[in-house]
Amino acid sequence: MPIRRSKVLVKWIYENQHKIQAVRYCSSLLRYKELEESPQIEPEAVTAPQTTPRPQITPEFSFKYDDLQVRLAAPYQLQPKPEANELGFGKYFTDHMLKINYFKELGGWQKPEIIPFENLSIHPAAKALHYAIQLFEGLKAYRGVDDKIRLFRPDLNMQRMNLAAQRSGLPMFDGEELIKCLVRLIQIDQEWVPHSESSTLYLRPTLIGTEPTFGVMEPDSAMLFAILSPVSAYYKTRSDGAVSIYADPNVVRAFPGGVGNKKVGSNYGPTIAVTSRAAKLGHQQVLWLFGPDKELTEVGAMNIFIVYINEQGDKQLSTPPLNGLILPGVTRRSILELASQWEDLTVKEEVITMERLIELNSKGRLLEMFGAGTAVVVTPISNVGYLEENIPIPTMKQSQPVFQRLKDTLLAIQYGHIDHPYAKIIS
User: Fold this and answer.
1) What's the predicted TM-score (pTM) here?
2) For the range 162-165, what are the long-range contacts, defined as Cβ-Cβ under 8 Å and sequence gap of 24 or more?
3) Is the distance from CB of 217 to CB of 169 less than 8 angstroms?
4) How far is Cα 364 from Cα 409, in angstroms, rounded to an integer?
5) Which of 47, 171, 272, 320 has CA 20 to 30 A from 235's CA?
6) 248: number of CA atoms within 13 Å, CB side?
7) How do the domains of the chain map onto residue ranges?
């Protein structure tokens, strides 16, 4: 067969593989038969701590890094790199992306690909567009003082992503294999990692249901993709370096039995109207309350912390417990673990109500309030808008604030000022 005809045939097969599912499906039947005839070993039971929820099911099949295929961008496809002081958050994207398809009829996960950055092509009836069958993660790559690039605890992001996939009816995967693929993507686009300690490269792995059928049910096809974006500050603060937050008791972010503890897109869209209303009132974020006691849950897309003098006269760092309403943040967990090693601070997960917050503040026992998350690291809070009044929080008046100590410690780990097992060096 002439070379030209061979190329045309290969191109046709690639573009029309969805039409010849039976051919590939039959080959996968051999694998199914092997599994059915092989002895099945029950997974060992693992009891995970409250702060580290893990998927209850290990996927039988996953894509493999060893199968990764790379197609580099041509010179004309490369984008100019913006200056660090022009980045903002999520405005620019790197030259390449990771894409991994899942087709149940073809045996599950297909080979991962790194390709030039491109628009996605999905069917208008894709379940992600109609039923929010989708989820995402957010983590960062940091260029350290030694010029090495580091990730911060990516294994926790993979655990959380699989938990969200399990709840959403989307296919699970081996988190270590995805980390390896992400590392390769970063290595290819490594010059997009800012040479600055005020900027980072943000990673956004996303998993969406692509099956083009109506009906709220587990999709037979999905797509996992990851894009990279160099970023700086998530949002502007007030002149004192802190933010003001707005608590509206009439709206809730999450409810018991829901998906407030999963990073799914449906958690975020409904918050926009309330956030816009808060901005018009002069606040930067929304403090989400829940229940008749007005329990504090999250602030914006961050976990919430307070520092106060407890009944024993000790300085205490507290955050709401993981009760299903709250996203198990990687930064949240890291703060709890790091601060628990400090002898001058009591660390506790406890329910915090607005009544309790106001009482502590009125008695002069409330010292600090701050939010924490991947995008912002640690952000101090100096004001809470609640029931038509503003409650000043003395966060920025402390001589040696806990929030600053935590932020400095996290940044020192992330940018390589200190060696720490939380940091994964990738180059």
Assistant:
1) 0.84
2) 162/55, 162/59, 163/53, 163/54, 163/55, 163/262, 164/135, 164/207, 164/259, 164/262, 164/263, 164/264, 165/135, 165/207
3) yes
4) 27
5) 320
6) 17
7) 1-39, 48-231, 243-415
Tokens at residue 337, please?
């673990």
**Is domain 243-415 given the CATH code 3.20.10.10 in the classification?**
yes
Please check the confidence at residue 55 and state whether its pLDDT lies above 90.
Answer: no
Class of domain 48-231: alpha beta
Name the strand (E) or helix (H) holding 142. Answer: strand 139-143
Average pLDDT across the chain, whole number:
88
Q: What is the pLDDT of residues 377-408, one digit of tens each?
A: 999 999 999 998 999 999 999 999 999 999 99
Q: Which pair of tokens denotes residue 384?
A: 């809470």
Cα–Cα distance, 336 to 319 (Å, whole number): 9
Structure-token pair, residue 259: 């998906």
CB of 262 within 8 A of CB of 164?
yes
DSSP 300: T
Evaluate whether 371 touches 297 at the Cβ level (below 8 Å).
no
Helix axes 154-168, 330-339, angle to 10 degrees: 130
Per-residue pLDDT tens over the stretch 145-199? 999 999 999 999 999 999 999 999 999 999 999 999 999 999 999 999 999 998 9
Query: Taking the mean position of all CA atoms in its chain, how far away is CA 247?
Result: 24
